[in-house]
Amino acid sequence: MTLNGKSIPQKNIAALSNKNDSLDREIINKAKEFGASLAGIVNIEELKRSPSHVISGRVPKFGGVGTKKVEGRKPGEVEWRDGVRSAVVIALAHSQKMPDLDWWVKGFKGGTKGNVQLISVFLKLAEWLEKDKQIKSTKIAYHIEHGAVFMKDAAVLAGLGCIGKNNMLLTPDFGPRVRLRVMLLDVDLPSTGIMNFDPCFDCKEYCKRACPQKAFDKQVYSSKEYGQNELPGRTGVYSRTECNVQMEINISKGKIVDIEGSDEKGHEVRYCRRCELACPVGKSENILT
Ligand code: B12
User: At what angle do helices 23-33 and 113-133 cross, to 10 degrees?
Assistant: First the structure.
């Protein structure tokens, strides 16, 4: 195990954690105490080898919603920082009963109310890690071009759930109705581990049928072409270009609203969640379409 790039003597590793709890458990419990619905740990070397990180530089370039133009950075290419060994992945439940958690407001710091909550969990966790455990953490962005990692892969390796046929992270308790955030650590922890969970196995694929743009109707990527079996939509049937058409429609239907906690106004967008809300996995609040 290393800390701040230096290896720590075995006896000090024990001192980092409580008598009865391993360090990873302690971090996970703290993240939940600070407001995360789910939390886990992913090892960075493992994350680098995960499907999205391996494929992202090879799939056709995408400059749609969820990407940023940054000088000197290729779209969708992750930049790995030195000294980073593991990461904490957290999820916040975005229940259908609280749709405003997901509404994106241009001009509102954090973008959505849900994201503000995720950021606040990491602010508290970073402080606790530094003070109580002398562990350095690095808060990272949402957009890959601003320094993020592919969060769904991180969440799967951290044991939060699996990738469903709707191409989203599915969790046992909340289905796909969660939003994610990742914070990097300089301590070398193992991944919490992949969960044995596949609710899509014999599902009637409500998600795919719910898509207004038929984004799951064609084979877009193949294992033969990309040399890996874990593809967008699991088998390569998810088209982000088609999905993005719907996102652009949602943007065009956005409206000007007051920004909470300020005198400013912003443009509010309610992005499509049809493939997500149609999923029967998780709590009983779902709509089956
Ligand atoms: C860019 C982006 C978009 C773009 C492009 C999406 C894309 N998939 O290419 C657009 C605008 C279209 C989009 C749409 C949506 N997005 Co988006 N998006 C992102 C962003 C910033 C990067 C995603 C990306 O580029 N992936 C790379 C592409 C190449 O891979 P992929 O299509 O995801 O497919 C990979 C996985 O399926 C994986 N995989 C498949 N099987 C397996 C098995 C294992 C074991 C593992 C480890 C991995 C794995 O491998 C595939 C690659 O080969 C992330 C945030 C982040 N930093 O990660 C949010 C994110 C993925 N989006 C999210 C959401 C919620 C949405 C939408 C529902 C819109 C909305 N209301 O917010 C839709 C859902 C689309 C869908 N069904 O996938 C959430 C997903 C939460 C969840 N529960 O999964 C994220 C994580 C953001 C967040 N705040 O939490 N998004």
Answer: 140
Q: Could you tell me the distance, in angstroms and rounded to a whole number, from the CA of residue 183 to the centre of ligand 1?
A: 18
The reply to whether the predicted model has a pTM over 0.90 is: yes
Within 134-286, residue ranges assigned H as helices are: 151-157, 206-210, 223-226, 240-252, 274-277
Q: Which atom of ligand 1 is nearest to the CA of 118?
A: 89
- What pLDDT sits at residue 75? 85
CB 269 within 8 A of CB 249: no
Give the burial string for 189-201 (b: 16+ CB within 10 Å, else e).
bebbeebebebbe
Q: Which residue has its alpha carbon closest to ligand 1 atom 5?
A: 240
pLDDT, tens digit (0-9, with 9 covering 90-100), for 178-216: 999 999 999 999 999 999 999 999 999 999 999 999 999
Nearest to 89 by CA among 21, 176, 27: 27
C-alpha 166: how far from chain center: 15
